[in-house]
Batch of 2 targets.
Target 1
Amino acid sequence: MNIAFPHSPGKGGPGSFQTRLEAELEKRQWTISYGPQPGLNPDLVLVVGATRRLAWLRRLKRQGIPIVQRLDGLSWMHRQAYPGLRTWMLNECRNLMAKYTHAYLADWVIYQSEFVRAWWQQASWRNPSHSEVLYNGVDLDRFSANVHLGRAKPRHLICLEGTLDYSPYAMELLNYLSNRLHELDLKIKLYGSFSCESSRAMLSKDIVHCGDLPRSHVPGVLQDAILLSLDVLPACPNTVAEALSSGVPVIGFNTGAMQELVVQKAGELADYEGNPWKLEKPNFANMWDALVRVWSGYPEYCIEARRHAEQNYDVRMMTKRYVAIFEAAVDNR
């Protein structure tokens, strides 16, 4: 069977998802194509988020080729903190393309989390008749480094983000934690980039910025650590599933899909105590308390993190469910 994507895998979480799904589909003898190919009509199309190739999708729709859309959240932060006209317009255009595909082109929609489904059901123009929630999957063989170490205490508090200063409070939170980490003998290590150099300049000298991290290197840094999620209202962060699969417990604020992903003893979630939709400043002390709880019972949290991932984030089980949807969509066309 041939599956077409509008584009080859990009950066960030959506790109990681597409790369993993493609690899698993190829193991099942599926063929992959990207965008319009002369003389080739795919069996179905998977749109990851949004695409500008709407004319191509409309043509395939008229030909009866099923279209499946996999969705995270809508872009929203630019409406609360104005980032400049160009970025504002890009975010609005991305939302319009995603909403048009969701309302008029997709035969089946896969939401990354229950949080995302509820968000879209409220914000969409109309909802397709077929939908399902599927969490992101991880190769449990590749992401397992921390499982076998058996350390009594972690050595690092790490952040893995595409853009480290995405949330307006991120730098202040990192500095707040860094100023207290001597109590736990921990160091903060950051992986990712900054949208503004001024954000980097704000960081405490005790925080180590390691720069961008290639996808292939991610499993190697997920050991001897606790993962700090900086995201505001996350849809379903790949890094959380990757950390839990590695036996690395996660801390973050209890917003977005975090309450679905991080169960008790796989990590700890801190009360935000504000309105994240309005980018109100959270209570940093709650995050410190969450960190201390995980640090104090680190071996048990590591075991539970891996157990939870084995039950919920296995990429093979994720792919099996995607294939079932793909096959149903093809049979129903």
Target 2
Amino acid sequence: MILRQTFHRPALAAVLGLCLIPAQAQPPAAGPTRPSGQAPGPAAGDLDTLYGFPVKPAYLKYYEADLLGRVPISPYLQVASRAFPACLDLALAPYDWVIDAGGNVAVVPETPHPWGHAFPKGYTRPEDRSWHKPGTVDSYGHAGAMGGQPGRIGGELLYEEETRTWAISNKSAHYSRKNPDRTPDQLVNAARLIQQVMDPDGAGWGDVRYLLGYGTPGLKSKLEQDPRLEYQNPAKKAGAYVVLKTGVIQ
């Protein structure tokens, strides 16, 4: 049996200036490591093929680092492996995940960040010009899962109440977006691992979705002709994605 631990959400606090901090400016920081006693996994070359090469986050949001460029790790961080599975909590969905350099899955819920802001009227996110609804708060994400350190493919875990399943996607601007080394096959490999090393809190595993907006332009053009193509907003044909098969029993 896997034991669960409950945390309280961190309080929001004020922070200086709205800007994006280049990831290259940050000094080395301690990222997730393999737990002591864990059996060795695939060799580094195999991991590169399965999940892509480790890269630094493409950028850091204004609240994700301090004035010295240090990136705090989310207090909710779990590093999931076959030896040490992670426990998802339906009440904390959605989650962000990243495959770390050692081939484990770093996963955090999108809980409020102590250096972030709340947006009672909503706002347009500067890095991708996407609109976020009123009540949005700045939250821990992929950078907080890795402490700003290099990671492989990453994405989101969304709980869908209608089907009582977790959907897995490649939605990570920090580690996946427009990186040619982040393919649908690598998302399938990551999804298989996630399904093996996480307790889904009584829910099932649902779609594995490769979001075209997070692939390269060439791959996007190719997948737009795929018969599996669907849209998050069918009326506007927005949020295109293809549903992938993992070969894992759902």
